[in-house]
Design goal:
The chain is mostly beta strands. 8% of the residues lie in helices and 56% in strands. The strands form two sheets. Strands 8-7-6-5-4-3-2-1-17-16-15-14-13-12-9 form a 15-stranded mixed sheet, covered by helices on one side. A two-stranded antiparallel ribbon has the order 10-11. Helix 1 crosses helix 2.
């Protein structure tokens, strides 16, 4: 099962520093090891035509200037559809490593080589991983299929780089901002656009709640995303009208 998409990243914690005033504790001189700081964790329910089909459990943390975004996907009532991923990026958004694998066999890894991206793909039948280079900078965003926490990180990057607080509101650049992304499972690259729409009242778990809406779009898709500006801009809801799909934070 796949929900076709495009988009991802990782200036994790930057949005917390720039827009919510939450400071990142600095390690003290003499400390041997900095403790990992949790940025976000939880789960998303993925619903198709109102039925929960997949649950994504995720965890985002930062330590020693490295952000790690982990995700696990499990299909409702079945162990056959199980995937996991781990994305590591530096504090300035450069990719260190991305890994994805599935229970039924097969895995992939994305690394940087000579300042560009290199994907290595392994299958159950292969003895040596196939390699596919991408002439994309190391700051390109990973936006893999079905992994919605990566969309959250994309929103954080957009807000940190293209928006600023002004008079109690966020002021963003005119028009959508564009990002180059890599979709490793599809072995393709794409450009996506993200645009801040504004505050809206949304029915969330049976109650009206004011959230901030953004639109994520590409060549053949448009998604609606809602984040909570009062809770470090965490992703709360995603609506994909063309696929009758809705994603809700549990």
């Amino acid at each position: 099962m796949r929900f076709r998409t495009v988009a991802a990243w990782g200036f994790v914690i930057v949005i917390a520093v720039c827009l919510t005033g939450i400071a990142v504790p600095a390690s003290r001189a003499g400390d041997k090891k900095e403790k990992a700081q949790a940025v976000d964790s939880g789960s998303f329910g993925i619903f198709v035509k109102g039925q929960r089909v997949v649950t994504e459990t995720f965890h985002v943390e930062q330590i020693n200037g490295i952000s790690t975004i982990k995700s696990q996907l499990k299909e409702t009532g079945s162990a056959d559809f199980a995937q996991k991923s781990e994305l590591e990026i530096t504090s300035n958004g450069e990719l260190l490593r991305y890994e994805w694998s599935q229970a039924s066999g097969g895995s992939l890894t994305v690394i940087t080589r000579n300042d560009f991206l290199l994907e290595k793909i392994s299958t159950a039948e292969s003895t040596k991983p196939a390699e596919q280079p991408f002439l994309m900078p190391s700051t390109s965003m990973i936006l893999d299929n079905n992994i919605f926490v990566q969309r959250e990180v994309l929103v954080w990057r957009y807000l940190a780089s293209d928006c600023k607080p002004e008079g109690g509101n966020l002021k963003c650049q005119q028009g959508p901002a564009e990002f180059g992304t890599l979709v490793p499972q599809d072995r393709t690259s794409a450009r996506v656009r993200l645009e801040l729409i504004g505050r809206e009242k949304v029915n969330f778990h049976g109650a009206d709640r004011e959230l901030m809406r953004l639109n994520l779009s590409g060549e053949n898709f448009i998604w609606n995303l809602w984040v909570d500006e009062h809770d470090q801009f965490k992703l709360m809801r995603v609506l994909i009208p063309a696929d009758n799909t809705e994603v809700i934070r549990d």
